[in-house]
Amino acid sequence: RRSSDLEVWRARVQKNPVNFLAMCRELSCIPDIWALKEWNNWLTPTGLGQSRRYDTAFFICCVQEIPFTTQDKKETVLYNWLTPHEALERFTPDGIWLPPPQYYELSRLCHFPSLQGLHEFSRERELEGCECWLPVRLAASDGFIQLLPGDELYPNDPHWMGEKNLNLSSTKSAEELCRDATRLHRIKYRSLYDFTLQVNIEPKYKHIHPLIKSNPRNMSSNL
């Protein structure tokens, strides 16, 4: 397919999703949706002053060749193909910024040194499904933490629809809160480009922990 054709069709689909079916008919193609493996699901936290929240599903798709790619100058303005550890290594003020969900999931991918290993794991694991994660913010004395499901401080009712803002706070430092806890599943923030994953719970749905390193440059992957 010529890139110009795909760009025209993308604009049509963005205006009206029904045009996706029309595109498939005209180009005689069938989307390989079976190649997509459900990976995880994150919901934008409340209380961040955002007018929009996103129920974001992550999928894994393993391909042997890099597909044709172009940005739409709207949601995507630049693209690049990186390994998980390369993306984490570039997570600096002079490089790229990764939202917490992307940082977490890329850290998971660093467990897999090969594409084949990731393909086999994601194919078997997706049969288990996954749950939606809604991070809940807790203000510590020296910064803030995002609590994730399974953490012992995670509220029983996180108010999924944002009907109530949870203003959790503590006079303890983030380090003290970590030391006092037995079940950890949280993200500790120092700055926009400096946060730490703290996880010791058993992952649900046969998933895998993020690979936690003090320095992403120590991570290696052949993905």
Figure out the total of helices: 6
Largest sheet: 5 strands, mixed
Widest β-sheet, arrangement of strands: 6-4-5-7-8
Question: What proportion of the residues is helical, as a percent range?
Answer: 25-40%
Key descriptive features of the protein:
three-stranded mixed sheet, 2 domains, 6 helices, about 220 residues, alpha/beta
Plain-language structure description:
- With 223 residues, the chain is α/β, with parallel strands linked by helices.
- The chain is 25% helix and 18% strand.
- The protein contains 6 helices and 8 strands.
- It has helices at residues 3-15, 19-27, 84-89, 100-109, 115-125, 174-180, and strands at 37-43, 55-60, 132-133, 136-140, 143-147, 168-169, 185-191, 194-199.
- The protein has a 5-stranded mixed sheet, covered by helices on one side. Strands 2-1-3 form a 3-stranded mixed sheet.
How would you sum up this structure in a few lines?
The protein has 223 residues and is an alpha/beta fold. The chain has helices at 3-15, 19-27, 84-89, 100-109, 115-125, 174-180; strands at 37-43, 55-60, 132-133, 136-140, 143-147, 168-169, 185-191, 194-199. It has two domains: 1-31; 33-218, no CATH class.
